[in-house]
Structure formats: C-alpha cells, structure tokens
Amino acid sequence: MTKKHYNAIVIGAGASGGIIAKELAMEGLTVALMERGDWQVFDKHPTDELISQRTSVLDSVSGPDWKKNPRVYVGPDGKREIVRPGDGRYSPLAAVVGSGTVTYGAMAWRFMEEDFKLKSEYGEVKGSTLDDWPISYTELEPYYEKAEWEIGVAGQAGANPFEAPRNKPYPMPPFEYNRDGEIFSAAAERLGMHPFPIPMLRNSVPYNDRPACIRNRTCVGFQCPVDGKNGTQNTVIPKAISTGNCDLIVEAKVAEILSRPNGNVKGVRYYDANDREKTITADIVIVTASATESARLMLNSKTDLFPNGLGNNNDWVGRNLQGHAYTGAFGIFDHDIKSYAGPGATMGICDFNHHNPGIIGGGLICNEFNRLPYLFSQTRPPGEPSWGKGHKEFQINNLKRMAGLHGPIQEMPMFDSRVTIDPEVRDHWGIPVVALSGQRHPLDRVHCQFLSKKAEEILKEAGAVRTWLSVGGGGGPSGHQHQNGTLRMGNDPKTSVVNKYGQVHDIDNLFVSDASVFVTGGGFNPVLTIMAVAYHTAGYIVKNWKGTRFR
Question: Is the whole model's pTM more than 0.70, yes or no?
C-alpha cells in the first residue's frame, strides 16, 4: 500500500536510485522508490536480437514504449524532428526496475585520478566548459570499493598498471580471456602495451547467493537467464524492500517535482499504471532518472522562485550533455577468431587513457561485445555491398572471422550540447518531452582518430588480413552512449547545479544522483562511478538526516 507521505522519494530505480533507496531504508527512513517501468522477467522476453536493448530495431525488450515516449532531435540547421526509441538519435534508456543494469555489458571501471581534475591536468580547452570535479578520486575510493563488494565485481587488482590506487582487491576472480581476447592480448604485449582482464559486474564464481555467469552469447542487451549479471534489481533493491521501509512504485511516470513557497520541495506529481494523476509528499526528493530524464524533470518543475525550472536560475540545467563517442577498428582474419562465448568483451588496454600529445584525456580499448547477426550485418568494410548476394556471402563467410577493438573516448563538455524541453511535443501523459541539441567539440574527432589507429595497430599485429577504421566523434548532439553532465556538480552555483553531494544549490532537500552530475565522463563505461557517487550522496543524506533532517 502506497503511503501519502515518506521521508524520501527516489525517482528512478536504476544504478543510482536502487542504491540510495537501500541505503536510506537500512537507516530507517521511509522511502518511495519510483520507476516508470516494471520488473523484467526473462521468460517473458525471447532473446530476439531485434528487440534487444542494444539494437532496438523494434520496440525494445526493456522499454520505453516507443508509442508513449517520443523525443525531439534538433539538427545543426535547427530542424526539429520527432524520434522514437529505436532511432539512434533518441539516446535510449531502459524503463524497467534496475534500468540499464538489467541488460548492460556490465564493465565495472573506476575512473582514473586524472579524470576528476582534467582542467588542472590539461588547462583550458577553447570552446569547452572543461572543469575539475569538486570531489577527488581519493574521496570517492571507499565508495567504489563498497559498490564492488555489495553489487559484485570480478576482476584482478593490479593487472592494469595504470589504475588508480585501491585499498581492497575485487571480491571475485577475473574472467578468462575468450579466443579473440587471447590473440589480441598477445599482440598488444608484443607492441609494448599492457592488456588485462576487464573488471565486470558479473559473477565469475557463485556470489551473494546467485550463480556464476554461463558465458551466454546473447548477454548484452538482454536480462541474464541465470541471474549471474549484477544490477540493482537483484542486489540492493530487494534489500531495500526487505527492510519494510521502502515501497517500490512501478509504472509511475513522474511529471513534476512539487515545491513549497519557501523553495524547498515537498513531493511529486505522477501518473500511475492506469494513467491516473496522483501526488505523494516527502521530506526529501532525490532525482536519479538519468542525464536526459533528470534534466527534463527539473526543467518541467517550475515555481515562482525557479521560473525556468528547479535549480536553473543560472541556466545550467540541461547544459554540458556528454556521452561517449565509441571508436576503434575492425579486422578480418583468415581463420575463425570469434568463439562467441558471452559477453564477448574480456580484455582491456588503458595505455592511451591519458598523457598523449595533443589529446585531452583519451580512452579505453577493448575487444568487442558479441555482434549478433543483425548487428553484424550493419558492419562492413568500405566498398562491401550492404544488400544482395554479396552481402549474404560476407555474412556467412566472416561472422567468426571478423573482430573489432573499440572503446569510449573522453568527450569535451560543451555548453550548447544540451537537453531542453520541447515547446510543442508531449508524451502520452501530456508532459513536455526531451529535445536534444548541440554539437561535439572538434577535439572529440581527433581523440577518436588517435584511438582508432592504435586499435588498428593491434589488429594488424594479431594477423588481420584486412583492417579498417571505425572512427566516432563526429557531429552531435552527444549523449547516445553513457549520457552524462547535464546537472553538473560544482562549488560555484553560477556554473553548476548541485554541490559535491548532489544537493541542488539553493534547495536544501532536493538531490540529484546519477551521471547527470558528472563534470566529465571519463574514458570508461560510467556505471561503477554512478554507483560510487550514489553511495557518497546517500551517506551525506543519512548523516544530515540524523542531524538537521533538512528542516
């Protein structure tokens, strides 16, 4: 039974929201954890690649429902176009309990020490809003550790010679290399690089009363059939509910954060599973809905004190939208190189993540997640036919002979790369939708070209008979992969939205904790940093709840 009033409302049951709900509930606070989707059940969703969260050719297995959730894409010429979740320009997000942690690739990276102080390391970048985080790696390290042990990470401490210092090893041993991982690792070592096993939010051995990973080839984009992939849906959210202090409210579409005349927030207005409008109140509201949806909610929540949206009196809400431009190279071999043991990515290389001439930050190189047949059919060398007999022959002959090395680069934040709310388009519930606009910084393309050439070197050394670059970083707006940055944390309210704890400047009882608070996105998949920041924010809320209770 849903209560009328809670100590805390958490909006979004994903990587951060599940953690915060559990931490608060364990400390005795009553929590409403709100999720626009529902629990995902593996047996109800076949592993059809066309409904994969990764491909989304048809309505995605994990949502959102494309008929109810349009967005607007604003091109460089200012032309506005309605896009659906299956469109790559949509910047899709899962809509289930656990959000993307149900279907993700589950790479579990800690950011490097430099990632928290890029401006100090590299100086001003013309045309960019590059800045340092207000929090250091050292401050966040205990929370990385907590995420690794509570959610569950398999890895080998010290295997990556460039990793930041840690105080405790991983709780599970690393995964073994698959076939292409072994070949690429040997080639990289011959070139003087330092390959290592990728840390994964998967059980390499039975852990936390759940079984080990079965190397399912259709892993990425789908829920794990044996529950060996670790997300908030099978770790912290059940713990939160078991306390008796947390109510999980599913199929709840939050439309607006409600405020008091003094500026503090008091609850939310939302639509339930039957499209009925409802409200609940709380002492604290924590927004954990993603860099696009959290910014949208703040912009749609207007008051006399914040006429342009909560926290937006200095026009920074929705700004600095970043993602990860993925880049790398492909190679074709004269023998089978892909085993298709899941998930596919097993080996990482961090030699080029920082301190490269002319590059700000850098990025990661990994062997790829499995490309199932449809996604494989979208990948062809220059000049190869994309349809007809030749296309089919390539598909048949090279499915196991083609392999790639790719990774994300550290994008430069841009003030005009942004989330706004569209003045005309509404979703199924009548709520103004996300509009995405802006361009990437020209340096992003330079970063991608640099990293792609490094990937191609490894492929050639590994024996590829044909190679070609797959260079990302062109055009915009950003945010498709690993969206972040739209509600930036900082010490100065004039150039940020929240403080280092995720507390919105000038609104004591409103918090944000997801990748939207990132100042920069790092050269890594961001989920472990999202989790660490969530633990950090939750700790601050608990400490102050016991003191001032934000009143």
Answer: yes
